[in-house]
Design goal:
Length: about 190
């Protein structure tokens, strides 16, 4: 039973708390643990008499517990499905159809899936289920624009630094030539004086 509950509620059941048991007392301990730690949190109450019937394998002893668990699982699944549907409805554009003449025209529209093509001369009807919400698209486009601006500024700075580096290299070259000229001239003047 703990393994079955763990399948539907994996975070609630820690299987190491339940030892494999054949004797009545160990079965009782496992059922008390399951009742106290898990089933009570699901709102399923099991009396001491029910636990004794289940542990002693009385026919139909577990039926009420299984029915209550099934009801909780079905209710939880329906709730999750409804939440998913609501989330999908809130993230999808409503009442929008997109008609384009051909695939090239559709490629210019953001988010249009290209899974199908219309025959030549017919309109292509595009499903909106794979579209990105406009708000999210706008946010991402503005982030891209900001990053492009930052990249452009950095590229300008790099270009400016390259220019400065070239100027400094040229200045070093000019000063080196002047130094060499003065050194050669100084040697000539020294030889003339001696």
């Amino acid at each position: 039973m703990a393994e079955m509950v763990k399948f539907f509620y994996p975070k609630m059941v820690e299987l190491h708390n339940y030892t494999p048991a054949n004797c009545f007392i160990h079965k009782m301990n496992n059922w008390y643990t399951l009742s106290r730690k898990v089933l009570s949190k699901l709102g399923i109450k099991i009396s001491k008499e029910q636990i004794e019937q289940i542990a002693s394998a009385t026919p139909n002893g577990i039926t009420s517990v299984l029915s209550a668990l099934r009801e909780k699982v079905v209710t939880a699944q329906e709730k999750r499905e409804e939440e998913c549907k609501q989330l999908q409805r809130s993230n999808q554009p409503q009442n929008i159809l997109c008609f384009v003449q051909d695939k090239k025209q559709a490629e210019g529209v953001f988010g249009i899936p290209m899974a199908c093509e219309a025959p030549t001369g017919q309109q292509l009807i595009v499903s909106m289920e794979n579209m990105v919400p406009q708000r999210l698209l706008d946010e991402k486009l503005s982030e891209i624009a900001e990053k492009d601006d930052a990249i452009n500024i950095l590229m300008q700075k790099v270009s400016h630094l390259d220019t400065l580096l070239q100027l400094k290299d040229q200045r070093i070259k000019d000063l080196t030539q002047q130094l060499q000229y003065l050194q050669e001239r100084g040697k000539e003047g020294f030889h003339l004086n001696t």
